[in-house]
Amino acid sequence: MKQSQPSNKTDALVIGGGLVGMSIAYGLALLGRKVTVLDEGDDAFRAARGNFGLLWVQGKGYGNAAYASWTREAVALWPRLDALLREDTGIDVHLRQPGGLQLCLSEAEMADESGRLAWLREALDGDYPYELWDPAELKARVPGIGPQVVGACFSPMDGHVNPLKLLRALHAACQKRGVTLDGGVRVEGIDEHAGGFDVRAGDRRWSADQLVLAAGLGNRPLGAMLGMTVPVRPNRGQILVTERLRPFLDYPTTYVRQTDEGTVQLGDSLEDAGFDDRTSSEVLAAIAARGVQCFPHLADVQMVRAWGALRVLSADGFPIYEAAHHSPGAFVVSCHSGVTLAAAHALRLAPWIAGVVEEPAIEPFNLARFNCAVEVPYAH
Amino acid sequence: MPTEPLFQRLQQAPHTVRIIFEGRPLTVSADVSVAAALLAHDVGHTRESAVNGRPGAAYCMMGVCFECLVEIDGRPNCQGCLIGIQDGMRVRRQRGAREAFTGAISEGRGDE
Amino acid sequence: MSNALVDLIIIGAGPAGMSAALEAASYGLDVVVLDEQGQPGGQIYRNIDRADAQTSQVLGPDYLHGLQLVEAFHASGVRYLAQVAVWQVTEERRVHFILDGQARVLQGRQLLIATGALERPMPIPGWTLPGVMTAGAGQILLKSAALLPRHPVVLAGCGPLLYLLAVQYLRAGVAIAALVDTSERGAVFKHLRELKAALAGWRDLLKGVSLLLALKRAGVLHFHAARHLRVTGEECADGLSFEADGKPGHIPAPLILLHQGVVPNTHITRSLRVEHEWNEQQLCWAVRRDEFGESSLPGIFIAGDVGAIGGAAVAQTQGRIAALAIAQRLEKLDRSRFLRVVKPWIEALRTQQAARPLIDAMYRPDVLNRVPANETIVCRCEEVSAGAIRGYVDAGCLGPNQTKAFGRCGMGPCQGRLCGLSVTEIIAEHRRVSPTQVGSYRIRPPLKPITLAQLAAERELDLSLSPTPSRTPS
């Protein structure tokens, strides 16, 4: 991709080349804007490289109907994003939306999950399809399901995608649409003035009318450069990946997912580990044990890879979509579901950032809601 | 595919055992790795890539390259260069991705 | 906590590991050696305690030199666990491994990593065909299974190990179809600057010279300055084509052994994230260590080829030095005695390392065989070509972790052991920056595959059960 020349002024500067940043950059490019994306180096934390690949709706937004709707709509938009990416790049990101399963290993878990779904159905006026499957139904539809799975919540809204191919497709699509990508950049300062924003890293400079902070955990220090408090903190998730298997699992589930390559991903965890993205054998062992409970035949399957990644978690667990009041033209975007929300980021958020459309759906996700400094427990 | 083995013994093996490779009985030296035992026979390739079916065979013989993956006694994706040959072993080529249900697990299939 | 705590865990039972174990044991340290192989010796002394007279005669005197060390190791009573697959090592010196099909953990007060070297990848067109192996593989088959090439064999590449194997094959009566040497004729004279310093290591130099003379006397067909190597064949190798002295050549053969040096096996050290640095002289990553072998993580030491290629004698001495430092760290000897005892070994090390710069210069692998053309597969596990990697760089990837995310190179069973160096060098060359700026794969556990059932049932190693050192085949 071409690199920018000094003193190039661009329409929009996006800081962060992960799924969030690239989705927004793509969306802006689709509107004909000139976009430059700044990205860190090869060894950055990159939440974009560490996710399960789920396009997940069920259960999300329990207690927050606005988030439930936003998620629902984002997933419904996904086929459009898939078509655009395929047209622009030829890359198939393996979008599959067969419905998904929350497998439950105890009656309590089943009660918990179904209770949340009932609340969500009511909050969305009944427009929230799901089914509760008992062991007999599971056995019929999910070969190899283990006897310790007492039931599952199935929702036709859920699906999965190959998240790494998605990242690659977004890069290629942005390149095709003329987005400039400058890698190896760690932003050190942001200055705002009447004409827009100047960003510096070392002796390099960039200028733009609009600035989008989409740097995940980096949004906290970047926001501070503009006098904003962006309450994001890392939450570690560990994932275990097996050797390739012949296809056996069509439905994505929250604990176990078979990828298009045949590998099986098992996860995950929710840990307060600071900026430590290493794995630990105790957590991996627990993930493995749970995976084997779900599918006993996985007991003799080999784990060949494992990784930890840092979720970008806001203080209340919901996305941040902020148009900075004190710095008009600056935006802060973060979430921990960059895959699920990618289509919404490209096809609804980007137009909102570009100023071509109002987007009342995202008003609840501004920074002002954090002024009451109460952190609620993280909701998956 | 070669019809002859690539390797032969410096001198007669002091002890031999019998194994089965792809349904074919073979007499091999005892006290060698599975990969070495196969190289002394005309087996050609010992795996097919899970990505594109490319035929592969042992390359480094020291557990680094994972080209020597074979199925041993029903267990897939074993590094043949790190496992000693045993009398009666049933060895098969690792053809692409392994099966999800190998039958090596006899409990908890959910339908038994 | 648990009872599974020992003074020193050593990973690797080659010359460095064995030598360190003996030294540490002599100071009363409680040592456990973990070895992936079935018996001690590493790669160089593989199977040495079972080698018969005929095989020993073929392998030569340097091989037999290892016998003393291995016998001393066996006699020492140091706890030795064989056929162990280490799958995780932590900063806190907890080593997770699979032994007899079960996942166990052991904690060391100190840790020595002595995992040696592996063959440098040699990605030439056709290198993935059955019938192509490494010279190291040829040696392993000879040592551990008394196997020799059945047909005239082609040896291709460069470096003393290639010539050694050729001479061993000659002794065994194997026909060598050709030695296709990618280094230049009379390479020693082109590196006079290194030669002077190397003279302190004249024995090593003489060895190399005598090998070449033996090949010449035997009339082995020896091509020099060979370029554009390509393995021919459809389903399997049927020969090697190349260009030497400006003339094209092709040698038909079903077996082609490649070699262009060995490089440190840094898989474990990378997973620990200890500091590494690019060694331009050796064209690979070296582990940063102090003069006694301690890495950038306290309590984690490095000895032998895993840190930087030095050969067996260097490995043995470094093992000893590290063990002394560890013994001092664990207060088995005081600092002033330690410094007195270690001094002669540090000096011996200097002599043993003297010839290395010259050897590195003489047998520097050709960039064409390290940074191949687009069509050549670089990641064998995931079938990723050099061209694909260049494409990912063009799409914005700066280093191997990004190319891994884009194209899966490094995600397969070998987890980047074989492709790592190639990918780093391809990216560096394409971006026109140094390998240091490009970096290397992030290596994560499991370092070896482990089943979910094994993982779920992991427990501390019970040291009270005396491990039976299984004399299994290598």
From TrEMBL, chain B:
InterPro entries, alphabetized: 2Fe-2S-bd_N, 2Fe-2S_ferredoxin-like_sf
Record flagged with keyword Oxidoreductase: yes
Top-rank taxon: Bacteria
Lineage: Bacteria, Pseudomonadati, Pseudomonadota, Gammaproteobacteria, Pseudomonadales
Record's protein name: (2Fe-2S)-binding protein
Keywords recorded for this protein, A-Z: Oxidoreductase
Keyword Oxidoreductase on entry: yes
Organism: Pseudomonas lutea
